[in-house]
Records
---
Amino acid sequence: MTVFKTSMRNFFAHKGRMALSAVAVLLSVAFVCGTLVFTDTMNTTFDKLFATTSADVTVTPKAANNNEDPQNGKPESLPASVIDRAKQAEGVKSAEGAVSSMNVTVVDSDNDNMGSTTGAPTIAGNWTKNDLRSMEITSGHAPRGPTEVMVDSDTADKHHLKMGDELRTIAVTGDFKARIVGIATFKVTNPGAAVVYYDTATAQRELLGATGRFTQVNVTADAGVTHTQLKRNVSAELTGSGPALKVQTQKELSDENREGIGEFMNVIKYAMLGFAGIAFLVGIFLIINTFSMLVAQRTREIGLMRALGSSRKQVNRSVLFEALLLGVVGSVLGVAAGVGIAVGLMKLMSSAGMNLSTADLTVKAMTPVVGLVLGIVVTVLAAYLPARRAGKVSPMAALRDAGTPADGRAGWIRGIVGLVLTGAGAAALFTAAGAEKAADGSLMLGAGVVLSLIGFVIVGPLLAGGVVRAISAVLLRAFGPVGRLAERNALRNPRRTGATGAALMIGLALVACLSVVGSSMVASATEELDKSVGTDFIVQGNQRIVPQAQKAIESTPGMEHVTSYKLIEAELTSPDGRTEDSDVTAADPTYASDLRRETIAGELSAAYAKDSMSVGSDYAKKHGVKVGDTMTVAFKGGKTAKLKVAAVTDDDVAIDKGSRYMSIATMEQYVPADRIPPNDIMFATAEDGQEATAYAALKKALDPYPQYQVRDQTDYKQELKDQIGQLLNMVYGLLALAIIVAVLGVVNTLALSVVERTREIGLMRAIGLSRRQLRRMIRLESVVIALFGALLGLGLGMGWGATAQQLLALEGLKVLDIPWPTIIGVFIGSAFVGLFAALVPAFRAGRMNVLNAIATD
């Protein structure tokens, strides 16, 4: 009980200082809980959608894959006779055919794309009774003929569509127009897909290119018949002659659909949790510093407790109990804040086009448990070392000294361990940079990052002396005596300075590493484009290029040649008898000049001859393939071909690495016309001197097809730079959480340091130090600590980034580019971070009463 009372008294006596540490715990726990609530809510949204839209039992072609676009742009389908056979199964109440395709683009009369901007699909199909499970018609009526279409209300609201507006649907089978005659509203949350409905005959003709066929059959069970029983009965009825079919219950189809987004959801979840882990790591330094300084300030008090009979365990327990209180308060508030963060993320996603309703907000029981346990355990563990140090203080030593005595032997051991770990990390990074395989090098890179980071954290107090003096020599000498005082204050407690700088070091090391990697990727890709790409224009989009768009490209005036480029699925068997599934590239012979690929054997032009192909050098080395060998290629949906290897291309590239080339004419011999895929991408080269005119003409030709973009090499480079820049900005935004926690650490360190030096500050003020000079001294001390952490972090991060670039060089990204403007900007920004962190501590120090400060014991 005495320990409890003492801990409570000390906790509330230092509530202001504890608050900053509690904020660090709060932010970290909030980010964890917010991530869990956000991803759980998204899962709930999709689960409800899939469960509502799925029939009791669904029959689809066995070759169909819900998570992939069809190879030829037209969904796999089954004959209408399947519906009649399904109706005959026992326990079937009704069965109806449905048509659905996601390989479409819908535009309005101004050619604006009606699809989602978040990656959600545009879904076109026929209106069925099964759709009434998830939607209701709120305006107009369902489509009744080829010129009528119905849209979902979310798409109508987003694009300001109204009854009577004309929409054009672009499919691989052609374009067709229809006017809006109805608007349907989702009964559950629609995560962002655009949905359009046509009558059945129009959907079959325009989306499938055939009549009397459907993409699936929706079967409804009679009362009292379970989905499992219904599946068994329908499967038995459909067994026998006819196409290969897949029969699934509502749950099985929902689970399959969920798997399609599961990987994407996991990437979001674990990436955000990773950044939360970084924030926790930074918060550990803040908590350690807080309790270390609180213990040092209460040394006399602890000594008195020990003299009055308190045992080491009781002192230790008292400090840990304070940490427990801090962890509980910070974690409870963090859990609540996490729900707020999740709601904020949902609103942000909704504004970007992915609709997430707060009605689906999901807070699982484990979420607050995880947040509380994580926050409390981390806080208590972080406070363990200061608590242990407090327990070791002897009564007499505590009564004599103003602070805890330094353990010289522990400092040397710490330094040796830090140097050993740093050396091991450097060795691992060096090994990773020289790796011959990216997979092996990645493991060593990970080990090097972890070991060097831990090593720098441990050895930080040893580095503080030299680095702080170097920074001070450049920065503080101009401020005279005040600058020297700031330098001495930063050097007074190297362990504290090292821990405070380490908190900032972690976030900035990651910023520097990712900046180097991103900049190197852009520089490498730019060099590769300059060296390898010979074409003038590249046309591609988020869908394969439909034939009507291909025709528009090919008929554009001013072109020397236009190249088609298709990817087709196949099963390759090498001369050594090993078989693997792979994409094969079928292109026009002009592609050899559009993309200049070096060969290590044979001539690439020969690979475009009849019944010939090329392979990449990595594949050739793995399977012992050489020019003149014969490859067995079994085309999906087509025949099996025996093709001669006419060239082996060098895979030491970033573009088309590992591609196997053949001519479109060769592919057409073995793949039926209705199975040949549309172009994935097209290339165009202008006639000499006609580049500008041809560029404008090509853009105009594709105006009716907004889903495709025309880029010259300058556009392509800029887009690559923008994409990587956007990704890095997102990462920097997430890392900002760790940097905020680090700033709180600097604020807390300075605030506690001011209290620790109360008498000293009073004496300096008494002998003539002005308030302005005092505040400047504290601000300069903060700047030096911040720059110390920045210097270590940026140096460490550039080392990580340079090593990562060496691994990327194995994938063809060979240029190391250090983004000096970013690095210098971050370093300068760190000085402003230091200034900002010192505002409150400096202000409080300046307001300190001189006589009271001197009288402080």
Note: The longest strand covers residues 559-573.
---
Amino acid sequence: MHTHSALSDEETAQLDAHWRALNYLSACQLYLRGNPLLREPLRAEHVKPRLLGHWGSAPGLGLVYTHLNRVVRRHGQEAMCVWGPGHGAPAVLAGAWLEGTFGEYDPDRARDAEGMLRLFRDFSHPGGLPSHTAPDVPGSIQEGGELGYALAHAYGAAFDNPGLLVCAVIGDGEAETAPLAASWHSNKFLDPVHDGAVLPVLHLNGYKIANPTVLARLPEDELDSLLRGYGHDPIHVTAHPGTPPAETHRALAAAFDTAVERVGLHQREARARAGSGGEQHRPRWPVLVLRTPKGWTGPRYVGGKPVEDTWRSHQVPLTGVAEDPHRLRQLEEWLRSYRPEELFDGQGRPAADVLACVPEGDRRLGAVAHADGGRLVRDLPLPPLERHAVALKTPGSTSHEPTRVLGGLLTELFEATAERRDFRMVGPDETASNHLDGVFAATPRGWQAQTLDTDEDLGPHGRVLEVLSEHMCQGWLEGYVLTGRHGLFASYEAFAHIVASMAGQHVKWLQSAREVPWRRPLASLNYLLTSHAWRQDHNGFSHQDPGFIDHILNKSPQVVRVYLPPDANTLLCVADHVLRTRDTVNVVVAGKQQCFDWLDLEEARGHCARGLGVWEWAGTEAGGREPDVVLACAGDVPTQETLAAASLLREHLPQLAVRVVNVVDIARLMPRSEHPHGLSDAEFDAVFTRDRPVVFAYHGYPWLVHRLSYRRAVHGSLHVRGYKEMGATTTPFDMVVRNDMDRYRLVMDVIDRTPGLGVEATGLRQKMADVRTRHHAWIREHGIDLPEVAEWKWPGACG
């Protein structure tokens, strides 16, 4: 039974009035700074001095906005839209202004002539509105400047939102990107019982900036085969430059009705089967293929060259209008072609017909709560850490796999959110590899495709999502947290770089959102980077890259955080912290291999709260004496090597006063003026001294520590060891030797940099160098590390 019926002439006229209003408002945003309603002839002084923005995709996006309004109003459907062609922002801004949302957030943009003019003047203006979708745009959840993420964001928004329809408008330029191409497979992970639905709208207007688009030039049967191969049922609507608008409105309304009907049918059938214990089947969800001319309804020719339905309409189709009277008249004719006098009254208020299709209240596309997820987010029911912490009598007396310990906490968190379903974990097929597979006791991997008897931990309602596309994982999680939920992205450290650009865009979104008064704080986006560079000895050079930290710390200090917990209990404390934070991007780097436990839970809590601290039990300071040398470390492997070096110095140079400092929050190295977690100079000097040699073993590239601390008084005495692109398939200890961060090299550094030790400790230095030489021969003969390394324990550790 079909729920749609033919549009009446009145309904068709109302939809067309709304669409014409959107097109008028979109075009005027590019051009006008005066005379917003064209109540007088257009003059040069009414035109902006700089013409910025993008027109080409705006009419098509406006058409979708108009018809989504009708869907929400007619079907009572809760819906939101992810606008992939972000440079079509004038249409989205126009829609939010026309429905009244903009005016509610900012009275200066009210639905009248003054508010309209304010919208026009603010567009692409310093201190105003950006030229693409951004946090300033009501109803938007993604930065529109970088393409490829709309579909993944839409699925992330739909997960665990069973009543929500998420429309994802995909531009045909965006459809050429690798992240978008992979994201079509997201339908194999969408649970029709507990999740909402995603309705992709593939908007084909034929061109990118200056070239045709691939999908728009495919024959329809080939495009259909592609989309059906992805698991979708295509519904086509095509408009040409000469197509009467009424014909397009009727076709698109019928297409949306059909799509909504099919979505509802799939969900009802799946939920009925789930209620009766029946077997689940993956639906073939609909996809709308909407073909419209690029720059539709705009100037057909400019300067004798075709513009409408060509790449020339991508940005500003008419230039030089303030200087060329002929072009000024052409602009006026174009704007008047929308008949604004029929769309707005004398005060600039929209006519009744224009608003006839617009939903009310929070059902409006610009006002929907899911697009401002801070309105919906709740604190997570995090379990007490005592239930998962590891016990130890003395530092180094026990060892655990930190991520496996964390897996216990995450398992309990999944259990605690089983009903509310607002926490998910994503990752590229590495949950078990990263020793987090304990979570499968609480939830399986989400999976809607075929299953075999040999499969394990797969289930149609699972909340762990694994797919070998970091882009999809990142996009899903972003869409999930942007719509008011929580999550964790666990990945091999080296391959976090794959989503570096996406992470950067999300940081920019959060930074910009902080400046938008009506945006409320979101749950943070959390990375757990494990299987890290120092313990990828078996996979080799390709898997050894700690540089994602550098990328993140280049971004806004108000948003980014990086933590390097040295053992299991500090990882628990850091995880507990980041899962409670708001409006940040947190990067946690932790090992999955057996690792010494250095701190009990209370010590770990205090240490993480400080972000760094002196481990007095590890050093040889006494009687309030200032140290002769500082051994600093950040990261689990650097911490072990530093403590091993400290034990060698304790044994061979007992008269040397050694201070051991461990850093968990790497931003603590920065000045407080540069990062909210930074230390004042006095605090920094109290830990690292002002002039004593500091030998720093760091998890990542050593120059980052220099960059973060270059203003400090001690910087001239700071020597950093870290990863320097010396990787291979080798033994664990050989990795630190290759990169000169091993315990023996650290002892040699102390001897070389501590005044007075050069002569006194010559023999010890030679002994350290000899061990390194012996190490090289040993691993080539035996394939394993030296016994004194493999069997090393902290002196005094007891089991």
Note: The mean pLDDT is 95.
---
Amino acid sequence: MASYASFHFMIFIFIIIPFCALAQSDGIVRVQSILTANEESNQWLSPKGDFAFGFKLLQDTDQFLLSIWYHNIPDKTVVWYANSGNPVPRGSTVQLTAQTGLVLRDPQGIDLWRTNGISSQVDYGFMNDTGNFILKGSSGSSLLWESFKFPTDTILPLQEFVTGTSVLNSRQSNTSFYKGRFFLQFEENGNLLLTASTVNESGTVDEIEYYNSNNSDPTSTSNSGYRLIFESRGIISILKRNNQTQQLGSSSNLPPASENYFRATLDFDGVFTQYYHPRNFTANQKWTVLWYEPDDICAKSISNKGRGACGYNSICNLVMNGRPVCECPDGYTFLDPDDKYGSCMPNSTQSCAEVKQGSAGDLYDFVVLNATDWPHFDYHFQTPSTEASCRQACLQDCLCAVSIFRDNSCWKKKLPLSNGWASPTLTTTAFLKFRRSDAPPVYPSPKGSRPKDRETLILVGSVILGSSLFINILLTVVFCLCTDLIYKKKKPGFHPNSEANLHCFAYKELVVATKGFSEELGRGSFGIVYKGELKQSSKNVGIAVKKLDRNSQDTEKEFRAEVNTIGQTNHKNLVHLLGFCDEGQNRLLVYEYMSNGTLASFLFNSPMPNWKLRTQIAMEIARGLVYLHEECSTQIIHCDIKPQNILLDEYYHARISDFGLAKLLVLNQSRTLTNIRGTKGYVAPEWFRNTQVTAKVDVYSFGVLLLEIICCRRNVEDIEIGEGDFAILTDLVWDCFQERRLDALVENDLEALNEKMMLERFVMVGIWCIQEDSSIRPTMRKASQMLEGVIEVMVPPCPSFSS
């Protein structure tokens, strides 16, 4: 009898085990099942293997996206993603639990995302062949949660939506799954809308409508739409309350559903597109467009509220299948080289002060763009006008960036330019102003400078060539002796970089300007800075003269670095180097004078500066560093970012100064080996490891500086908190962030306390910047964009390896 029972038990085991395995491979996911993010990670497949749920490795990164994707095609197209599109690091997990459903955790076990709204115990999960991941309750019939109810940027066949829901949100770019700025909404009145969010000049966010299905009927609600349906055969339509339907797109060329996959995606560029892909495909087949809305996003997204389909100062062009392409006009480059749909910045600046000193025609010229327009936001309109007068009016107006001529009328516009687009249907001509490459220098050359010497030498040479042989020989000898004497006496011992448009001051000239170096502004390791004045036209211009210590062994090196580095820069958030003196033992640098001193004296003295001004200064420093790292012809690493090296002009705008330790990197070089540079408390960890350093050392220093700006206290305080220990601001900030005590960082600062979201964003950016692992730190461009709220800031990890 026992033998008989054992036999049946073994039969049961051999039957049940394969059945359980089959159930798992048949789309069912058991409670406590877990997936780990790595290249070899398994997925939860749908019964036919059409769809997979799991971690997808993102292109060119070591991060993973918890998502659902088409599994049986080479493209592996993602149709749904969790955690607001935030990727997670290797080693993260997702687990199906009975109490909360799906739980996403980072490698340290911290919860990042979960399926909220679970009302009862989960029995199992199921990956459907429709692309819908569902959670079933313990009764077996109750549906607790489904991915179809929480769409991202894509809808699939058998997916439905009712009015009053925000259906889709575009991703940020083709490779970034962060939320973008385009939305597909199904209004209560039955209209399906495409909208774009845009930040206007006042900093507020506006919604721009650029497509409307027009399904509402104010005279009869029964004629209005109330449900959006994606049928299994591929037709997308709006069902009205009277049971009539209005189809979106066209079904005339709709391929059979039995042979094709379908999807409709709000693409990152704002175009809502329906695609199909053969189930049985050849190697080179991809998704094919069936239809798209709107028909011309460049024209339909134009609004008087924001920037349009592309960024500021850019031009939108329509290409195949309604896709917009954003281009920077001549004389402009993308603000973010990685964002080809973002804003463009001018390669040079325009100055009203410059125009007063010379002819505008010598300084500026125009790029003529036919069939191109930047509608709205003109500040001056003139009619009647001619092309020539429209062009001339912009040339003579130092505020004008572009003039638009159309129908014998002229519109003048300032920067930034918005809603730029080009179309063969336009009858406009745009005159886009740019600085001539051979524009004369802003400041006149001082007397006795080398250009005049060259003219003298050329004249002497001409006389020599026109004389007799004997006289030629005699004059040649005299000429050589004179040339040698002249250059020994007057020629500086140092030639600045050819790109540096700098003055060579005589030492006596600077002695007079500084009244014998009588008024000291500050001093550092390389020398002392004195206040002075130079006479320029009918007014005196304030200058700051840095007199380098002749006894310092690094004086010559520091002098050359500063002249060559800052002399070739031009940005509103960098201090301007006007010139230098290199006579005998005298090494001096001449800067414009900053009337409000250093950021250090501004931050760390009473009374506390207001929050708005502090945040403005932080963002301006970030922009200055973006320029040094990415927008110069030669990348510049400052190497000594600290409050003492940030100066404030008369309007409290930040200017980065003191480039004596700066390191220049040639084109395509991203790392450098060098000795430790910088100041204690602001030096990145990689300096001490004798490894190659990158521009990320400036990011680290900026992170420390940003936290100082937030808290108005130094990174290392002279307050002992224990035996041999001192209060370190970066440690304090991390502790307060972890414990959700950010209020403690800005005590008694009511303005900052009232801006808690901004305060948290700035603190998180600071923590990202001070990460010990330099590869985790953002670039300065990304840090700047995070500060300005352009891109989302993820929760940062602990900045120290040892913590």
Note: The domain at 27-147 is CATH 2.90.10.10 (Agglutinin, subunit A).
---
Amino acid sequence: MVGLFDIGILVVQLSLACLLLCSSASTAQHTLGAGSSLSVEDQPRPFLVSPDGTFSCGFLQAGDNAFTFSIWFTADRSSTAVWSANRDAPVNGRGSSRVTFRRDGELALADANGTTVWSTKTGGSKKSLAVSLRDTGNLVITDTSTGRATWQSFDWPTDTLLPSQPFTKNTKLVAGYYSLYFDNDNVLRMLYDGPEIASIYWPYPGVSVFNNGRTNYNSSRIAILDDTGVFQSSDQAKGEASDLGLGIKRRLTMEQDGNVRMYSLNASTGGWAVTWLALKVPCQAHGLCGRNGLCEYQPSLRCSCPPGYVINDSRDWRKGCKPTFAVGNCSRGAPPPERYKFIKVPHTDFYGFDLWYNESVTFKQCRDMCRNMCQCTAFSYRINGGGKCYPKGTLFNGFTAANFDGIIYFKVPQDFNASALQVSSQSAGGLMCSPNVTVVNVSADVYGMAPRSSGKWTYLFAFAGVLGLLDLLFIATGWWFLSSKQSIPSSLEAGYRMLMTSQFRRFTYRELRDATGNFKEELGRGGSGVVYRGVLDGGKVVAVKRLEAIDVTTRGDEEFWAEMTVLGRINHINLVRIWGFCSERKHKLLVYEYVDNQSLDRHLFEEAGGGKTTTTTLAWSDRYKIALGTARGLAYLHHECLEWVIHCDVKPENILLTREFDAKIADFGLAKLSKRDGAAGVELTHMRGTSGYMAPEWALNLPINAKVDVYSFGIVLLEIVVGGRIADQRTEAGERLQLPQITQVLRHVVDSGDVMSLVDARLQGQFNPRQAMEMVRISLACMEDRSSRPTMDDIAKSLTAFDDEDEHPAYHS
């Protein structure tokens, strides 16, 4: 009897459970009118479901007490978010956090304290609006009188693209430091935008767009994942699911390891299977192992440190490795070149950051060049088709692969214990653990892989977890304190937290007003505003620019701060460092490092009409150093930084000089801060630059790319040689020289070899003729049609090749 009674109770319980579930399903809403809401405490009841039940929308747990307002596939047993409103700012799970479709037509998410952390910004409408979840997974706010959508989640993707969801020039998929987007050359790319560097890694940046099977003749800039499992872009990028066909639920996701994967949902198990991925070689993604780190896949991804380097943070490989010795030290007192040797590591290389490129050189020549150059930390040498030498200044994007035939040689002190280095035959040439070499498996939370564990590792991870929790509590407390001081848009929380942890910071207008003595001492003025000298608390001298002439003063703080989070990470020895910014209503200011030797024009030109100049002629060696430094700075902006960083106003006034006459380019990034039409790329709405330095395409209203900087640099380079403004040069009849006449003169000089007639007479023959001729050749190439102009990377390499010339001049007065 007892057994039958238990069975009877079980049947009743199951019936009640079924009744509750059926009731819940029957009351699931596809469309809601104004005034509807859902509390986080009501989850897992969805806010909305699609009519066919494929998608659900509501709160998803993102932590122990953190929730996001998200959309997911209903059949997905893990409820993976395909869209989230507040991915980077989850709300409190214990309290009155709530999503509400307000009566004014705005869908808004409020935290437990009542703060709005996200909204559709559709409020204030007098129309009759409704919110619904479509069968495509698109959350839409619709004007019920016309059926027109006033807002939709498809326009604001996070890290995932759904079938039939258009991917356009105005959208991007973002996961951590990685993003998928259309660049300003119309090509679909993947970008690593880390704390120290930013670089393109897909399609492979070492070859041209066309050699990658793409085309930039693609003004539509659109991509889509269709219902059969084909992902196709208008630049001819294409990916197909291995289970190609209709009837399968799919998603395309940008992930934390820098790869884009297509997933197919198993209807019976609710699990996902990878059916296509963009990177077949995982280590092709940049930044996985941080500065100096090596990435290897065998068959799971792992990071290691080169010989003589140790890991910075065992909890986060993205922080890379640090050397255990001083190498690449250019300061006084550094060990002489003969105090260094090299450790050979096969099948290994680091992408980018070559100090220069040399072809048809011997191994010994390559080695000696690296040994004698203090900036060189390693060099790569390849024999394929002739000796190719790649000295490295910075070690980023390292990888090891058994099928890679290159070899890298690490620069280490003579007393480095090479015997401690062990090479494992099981790791395809990778480095195994030793006192000087660290190898640690990549953590699963970063790369989404199952970790290996043992007893001692369990305790280690537990300890690391406690430390991580303490770090989070510290950051949260600091953030709360700052938030109580002033209001900061929640959507900027992640970016602003990054700013707080670096030397880059946000200033108040009052701080900068006091630092400049109410903007008293003017250093200079230009097309973007006036620059003042300032002294911060602590005695640090800075230059403060008030942005007045370019259209940034009317932009919102949120948009301006978002731009500054990118500019603040740009750092190169030949660029003026941006220390911070101010954005308070109409006040938009930038804080730069102070460069105390004025600008190039003050040293180069004899200004008419009482203009300020220096009293001494700029020496040839300093001129060449300035030309090379400027080229390297622009090459960094064009090739090693973000591709949209086009200066648009390269001229002597924007090249500042240190006391040692090292060049530092100023005002870069202002083209990006200027008002533009779209979110993707640089789409300038008006001409920028200075007369005499502007490329012809400005006047022809052609699309602008980095070649405008190349043209301007060519003019500046020629002015360094000539010692005067090119725009001021005149014919015998007194008419101003035009571009065809200038190029004709330069061709004559190149053909005749008579560079003496062109060089600044004030030097009295004290110059290097080979360097001068190379500068003239480069200048001429920069003034060609833009398709024929060299890149700044090519120019920097050409100038570097002549940098070690004998400084004694061949001509004398």
Note: The chain has five domains: 26-155, 160-280, 287-447, 498-593, 600-801.
